[in-house]
Every structure is written in C-alpha cells, then in structure tokens.
Inverse folding.
C-alpha cells in the first residue's frame, strides 16, 4: 500500500513539473515572438556649415629669350606677390612658393623645336595659400587685379577648381547630427507603429551610415552641406 502511495506521489510531482515546464516554454515562446516584432526605419539629418579651410594654388608664367631677364623677372614678381599677400593680411605661415621650373623650347628629347613660339624659355613658379580665414582670402581674390598694373597675371593651378574649400570640424557637429537623425528615425517609427496599432519600444540595432560633405552649389563652395542617414531597428510593443 505504501509502495502504491509512493508511485502516486512521484507521478503527481512529475505532472506538476511538466505543467510548470510547459508554462515556462510557452512564456519563452511568447517573449520570443514579442521581440521578433520590430520596424526598420531611416533617419536623416542635414546641416549647412561654413568651410573652415581654404587652399588656393596658383602660378605665374613668364616667357623670354634671355635667361638673365627671366631670372630677374621671376625674383621681382615673387617679391611683389609676397608683398601683396602680406598687405592683404596673410601671415608668412599662410602662403608658400615653390621652385621655379624653366623649360627650353629649343631643347627636346624627342620631336622638333616649337617654331610657332617666339620665346625660347618658359618659366613657371607655383604659390599656395592655405588659410582658415575665408573672408580674408575672398577679399584678396577681389583685389588681385591690382597686380596687373605690376605686369603680373596669376592663374589658378587647378583650372577646374580655383580655390578648394574644406570643412574640417566634422567631429564637433557629429554627435548633434547623430542625435537629430535618431529622433527623425524614431518619429518615422512612431508613425508606422501608430498605423499598426502598436507602440515604439527600445532600439534593437542601429547603423550610423556615412557622413557626406558636399558644396551647397557650384558657385558657393565655401558653404558646405553635411548629411547623415542612419538605419535603426525599433522593437514594437502592443
């Protein structure tokens, strides 16, 4: 009799254990389904910022049949240009000049001399302005015509882009833009959740995306457009 009672007690314990285990598995399944519900949205943030660095590479070109004249002209033009830049407010650390390159048109490693050019020697010398004072550079560009009276004509070294404007302070605005893009993404997720009869929960995963910096337009390269697109997955809750 005692043995049968023991069997009954063991059977009850096993039954209760199976019921509890079944409930746990059921709850785990429900929780798994709950956390499988999420929405993937994109968040956008854009800002217009002023360029923080300007680089202007330019050169002078001189032609002559006499090397002595060419040398004196190069030295004189270099002094005039450096004086002009100093008077425009540029520090010596903001501009530099390269070594003059002289080409003898009557000396070729191949082919024949250029008979159409009346000058034998062509000299070129490069200069570079690198400054964070954008307004100062723009003012100097407006006054370059004064060098014409000195017999000096400047030409941009890069014809497709005279002055290169760069934005170097991305790290300063990056946190704020990421926050703005995240808020934008959550707003989009809330609209989706509202239509689905749910609420937006915590972030499941997020991808920052890449920051892009471009000119606002072709005429105002000193104003940049910074853009970031994030991809964020939000859990949906009933």
């Amino acid at each position: 009799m005692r043995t049968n009672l023991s069997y009954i007690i063991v059977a009850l314990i096993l039954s209760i254990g199976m019921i509890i285990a079944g409930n746990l598995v059921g709850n785990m399944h429900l929780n798994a389904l709950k956390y499988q519900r999420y929405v993937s949205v994109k968040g956008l943030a854009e800002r217009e910022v002023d360029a923080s660095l300007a680089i202007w590479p330019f050169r002078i070109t001189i032609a002559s049949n006499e090397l002595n004249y060419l040398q004196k002209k190069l030295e004189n033009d270099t002094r005039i240009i450096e004086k002009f830049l100093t008077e425009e407010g540029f520090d010596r650390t903001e501009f530099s000049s390269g070594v003059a390159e002289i080409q003898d048109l009557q000396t070729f490693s191949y082919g024949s001399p250029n008979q159409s050019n009346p000058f034998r020697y062509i000299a070129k010398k490069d200069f570079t302005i690198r400054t964070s004072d954008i307004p100062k550079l723009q003012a100097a560009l407006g006054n370059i015509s004064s060098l014409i009276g000195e017999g000096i004509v400047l030409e941009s070294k890069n014809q497709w882009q005279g002055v290169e404007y760069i934005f170097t302070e991305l790290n300063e605005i990056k946190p704020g833009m990421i926050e703005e893009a995240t808020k934008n993404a959550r707003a989009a997720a809330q609209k989706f959740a509202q239509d689905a009869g749910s609420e937006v929960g915590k972030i499941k995963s997020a991808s920052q995306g890449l920051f892009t910096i471009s000119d606002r337009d072709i005429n105002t390269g000193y104003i940049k457009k910074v853009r970031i697109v994030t991809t964020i997955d939000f859990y949906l809750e009933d």
